[in-house]
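Incident log, structure service

09:12 report received: a user says their structure output differs between two submissions of the same chain.
09:20 pulled the input from the user's history:
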Amino acid sequence: MMMLRRLSALFLGCALLLAPVLVLAVDDPAEMLPNPQEEARAEAIGSQLRCLVCQNESIEDSSAGLARDLRRVVREHVAKGESNRQIMDWMVNRYGNFIRLSPPLSNGTLLLWSMPVLALLLGLTTAFFAYRRRNAAPAAPPPLTAEEKARLADLTKD
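09:34 re-ran on a clean worker, output below:
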């Protein structure tokens, strides 16, 4: 019984210590747009943009300060009446294609995604030729010419 009380006290203490951190993850309702259609549009755009701090989350899912600032910028552009394309172009011009959670297919991204396959093919080709060279029978030396035989005989006379 005493052990159960200690464990529950430990759990409660940890929960109280983590409570302020968990509260930070809640978005401020003041940053939301009053128009529900504009807010839904801003959330849709924000879900396509990468948090530059977290890098695996969208700015809508992140509680980082920079993500909060980027959400505010997106909402300002939506409130101005800009199109989704204009807002996305502005973000890409400002932060590069890295800001997009799914960047468009280009020569750079195609090369990036194909590099593992190319490296595997290069490794397999190298291993194949190394294996063939190692297992190949050594070539027999050419027979001695008459001059070489005579010189050999002179050297071995002693």
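09:41 both user submissions now match this output. Likely a transient worker issue. Closing.
09:42 reviewer note: The longest helix spans residues 107-135. The two ends are 102 Å apart (CA to CA).
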